[in-house]
Amino acid sequence: MNRKDLNPDSSPQAAFGARLRSSREKRGWTQENLAGRMGYSSTHISSVETGRKLPTLRFSRSADQVFGIADRFDTFEREWREIRHGAMLEGFPEFVGHEGRATEIRLYEVGVVPGLIQTPEYATVLAESAVKRGAITDDQASERVSLVAERQAMLLRTPPPLVLAVLDESCVRRPIGGPAVMDAQLARLVEFAELPNTVLQIARFDMGERRPFDLPVTVLTLPDRSVMSYAESAQRGHLDRESTSVLPMLTAYHQLQAEALSQAASVAVINQLRKGTP
User: Fold this and answer.
1) Helices (H) and strands (E) in the chain, counts
2) Domains in the chain, please, with CATH?
3) 135 falls in which pLDDT band (50, 70, 90)?
């Protein structure tokens, strides 16, 4: 039997294939055995293991179920996201995987409207700006815009997650993409606030030192009620699962909500901006 040697260090795709083979062989399964459990052909399994075929999201989730690791953080789905979104900040693909399963999402953003609430036009302007700066390629920009749409789709799942968004006032006052793009984005924020599973608040500039966060942050509550936080530096994203650090962040988020405008007052501010009123 011919056996192709695998070099998991050659690429994320090769690492995925090598891990799939290793997981299979640890259980004493042939490619035919694994194919039957996952609902694929043995040829397909072989192609993924040797890196000739890219895994898909469906394939990765099936592997997680078959190997019993769907509830762990080191899933095949996480590896797939790192392959698919390799242009993203380190740590971000893993965060997106957890975000898609979260029952509650609490986010605070500064400067720009967060991806979960961006219009396609707003997201495109931000991505194209990064291309002009030489930070990413055109293909990577398209990937970023596509990912925004994928992340927003999870808001429509049944049951949907509870999403609490506190936006620094700079998010709604900073012009992005011209009047038409900005007006559509502000309208999208109002629509978001009207959903039954969302809360939108604005943290006014005059909160001053009472604002507990200086940088954007997201706190996720997972189906098992565990919590994790996500924050970004210029180089990478960081997921924190330690309750000793995440729970104080959750407390600080509650303090932020208490100081921010109510949803009704926040929507009023947005509507005033749409009318051109300072």
Assistant:
1) 12, 6
2) 12-84 (1.10.260.40), 98-114+157-274 (3.30.870)
3) confident
